[in-house]
């Protein structure tokens, strides 16, 4: 039979080469499509809470599903009155499902539901950050980054890249190589608190992208300075006293502005430099004290500023009495959460009241200018 078939094929090729080529083409398409379909079906069933490449998550009753990523086929398997039921979505040319896309799953619903996903183009790659936490040192920048990281649409660098202040000569490709891989719908973010006080940084970030979203966490400059000094003590062991560095000739009315620990707290001066390049609306300011007492509120505002779904809510936070700080649950269903390490929230040395009031007096006019510049009253004493 095979011999006869081969003979017929040879006959057609001799007599009509065109129809032979067309037949071959049709055969190829059939094979390719069939094979392709098999490839698609090789994707595994995954739990509905799967967040992997698609950063998908579902709401409590599992009747709708929210996904991010480009998907060509999405199948939902669950139960309907005890019977297995399927719901299939076919997106012919792929569909970019954003975090707000709602797909109606109809009656398919149960706790054991599974998702079957096929992505056309996940477009995973390293991207330059669209958002940067620019400071301020000791303001609570690590806490904010760790909180934001819980959001499925946020990817962050671990260590501080220090690209725009220390490693600028290495170029943007070097900077990009430090970034985590992201999907198109995800936001890449990094934090380097020294950017805030480095003169050249705003212009350099603007050159990278003038739409970069900037986040600044500020904290009472007096406690910030003591926090900074505490870090110096912990790194260098016994150090000069706070007073001997902060005041000239031990005179509490003569503040040593050239000491970096004092200078960082002149927020208005540094912000002026940023506002010569970026409009204020592109800089979101986080209230550092409120980030400790009401993290849910501050994170909600940051999510809004970054154009993210308000995934992280008050429910994600719990207060750790021993640490005296809020910690975060990566998933609501988790019993335990993630607290920052012991280098955050160190006990501060107690300074004499005369030193404290001299510092408060010194910072007050700068703080008031800062409130006016930002239109926010931080109420620092
Ligand atoms: N949730 C939570 N857990 C722990 N610590 C918290 C938290 N929220 C804010 N903070 C405050 O963050 C301060 C450290 O700030 P930074 O992370 O910006 O420091 S650094 O510039 O990266 O060194 C750190 O300062 P110190 O208390 O002086 O150590 C904390 O007061």
Features:
binds 3'-phosphate-adenosine-5'-phosphate sulfate; 12 helices; alpha/beta; 16 strands; 381 residues; 4-stranded antiparallel β-sheet; 5-stranded parallel β-sheet
Write structural notes for this entry:
- The chain is of the alpha/beta class and 381 residues long.
- Helices cover 35% and strands 21% of the residues.
- Helix 1 crosses helix 2 and helix 9 packs parallel to helix 12.
- The radius of gyration is 29 Å and the shape is elongated.
- The strands form five sheets. Strands 10-12-9-13-14 form a five-stranded parallel beta sheet. It has a four-stranded antiparallel beta sheet with strand order 1-7-4-5, with no helix packed on it. Strands 2-3-6 form a three-stranded antiparallel beta sheet, with no helix packed on it.
- About 14% of the residues have low confidence.
- It starts with a helix and ends in a 7-residue tail after the last helix.
- The chain is built from twelve helices and 16 strands.
- 3'-phosphate-adenosine-5'-phosphate sulfate binds next to helix 3, helix 6, helix 10 and strand 16.
